[in-house]
Design brief:
324 residues, alpha/beta, TIM Barrel, 8-stranded parallel β-barrel, 8 strands, 12% strand, binds flavin mononucleotide
Length: 324
């Protein structure tokens, strides 16, 4: 069975959204947003803040295993922190070599390291030695910083360093998030390493999923923004991916999940940040759901929690009604 993975998305797919998305249909695993490692040994609470799932067997309540991602550039410090994380029982440890954010790259982290395959090798070796063999150890990379010249070297370095799997986000750092994703590069990378390679980038619907697998030759696909914009995509793919989406039925199923999301966001973040979190999700949902467009438009102008809750109640969000 081809595996479907939920991508790490810092500032978007935190534990709250992971919980809700994995409720619709389980992923083979999810990866957390990155934990930034820079010079110090992080306390256990730093890992549990990013992944509260660590307190619950490192899985969402519906049973999707959650792997924790680390980002950093110092092999020794990365290894020390990986050992600290490993003691908390994560479903896996993943390394980030894809983040394009200037604040991260300035400190030699994320995609900036793709110019230095020797350093990728050193980091992977050090972390591999610190993580017990029974914990899956993987990495996620882009194709390069500005071009793909060193993509194969980077993949070889990570595989030689001991990762048991690679996810390839098929764009360079310079490409940002602009389409297209160069899925053919996933296949080129798979040809030179002996570990499984997962394809990632620009899969928004069943047709993209099919084309991505066919162009890349990869069996497994990691879904990012497409999974947030269409929470049912993973389920339709698992059901064969042939039947057209019934958006009305799906929207009815989504309403209680939007309600639950709102409740969980309110319990987690400061009130002033809560409306933004909901708008962010609705902004992606409206790509696929006409009802999402209506709800997004109604919520967009609201900036305080009571007004947003009022809009949700007016849109028949069942969870809120039950909670009232
Ligand atoms: C808001 C946002 C945050 C992201 N944060 C991370 C991250 O923390 N770690 C990581 O490896 N990739 C991160 N990514 C990249 C995604 O995991 C994924 O590789 C990328 O979005 C391409 O997949 P997609 O086209 O299916 O969205 C992020 C992407 C987005 C849009």
């Amino acid at each position: 069975m081809p595996r479907l993975l939920l991508a790490p998305m810092e500032g978007l797919a935190d534990d709250v959204l992971r919980e809700v998305l994995t409720r619709v249909a389980g992923y083979d695993h999810a990866v957390t947003e990155f934990v930034r490692v820079s010079g110090t040994l992080l306390p256990p609470r730093a890992f549990r803040r990013i992944s509260p799932e660590l307190l619950a067997g490192s899985a969402t309540s519906s049973g999707t295993p959650v792997r924790v991602q680390l980002l950093g550039s110092d092999p020794v410090c990365m290894a020390d922190n990986a050992a600290q994380l490993a003691a908390l029982g994560p479903a896996g440890v993943d390394l980030n070599f894809g983040c394009p954010a200037p604040t991260v790259n300035r400190h030699r982290g994320g995609a900036a390291l793709l110019d230095e395959p020797e350093l990728l090798y050193a980091i992977a070796c050090a972390v591999r030695a610190a993580v017990p063999a029974h914990i899956p150890f993987t990495a996620k990379m882009r194709l390069g910083v500005t071009d793909t010249a060193r993509a194969l070297d980077c993949a070889r370095a990570l595989a030689a360093g001991g990762v048991v799997g690679l996810v390839v986000h098929a764009r360079t750092k310079t490409d940002g998030y602009r389409p297209p994703a160069h899925w053919e590069w996933v296949g080129r990378i798979a040809d030179v390493v002996s570990v499984p390679v997962v394809a990632n980038g620009e899969v928004w619907n069943e047709d993209d999923w099919r084309r991505c697998r066919s162009v890349s030759g990869a069996t497994d696909v990691m879904l990012g923004r497409g999974a947030v914009a269409d929470p049912f995509l993973v389920r339709r793919i698992r059901q064969g991916g042939e039947a057209p989406a019934d958006r009305d039925a799906e929207w009815a199923e989504l309403l209680p999940l939007i309600g639950e999301f709102w409740q969980r966001v309110l319990a987690k973040v400061e009130a002033r940040h809560a409306p933004g979190r909901l708008k962010q999700w609705l902004n992606l949902l409206r790509r696929n759901f006409p009802q999402g467009e209506i709800l997004y438009t109604a919520v967009r102008a609201k900036s305080d929690v009571p007004s947003v809750s009022q809009v949700l109640a007016a849109h028949e969000i069942p969870f809120l009604k039950a909670a009232a």
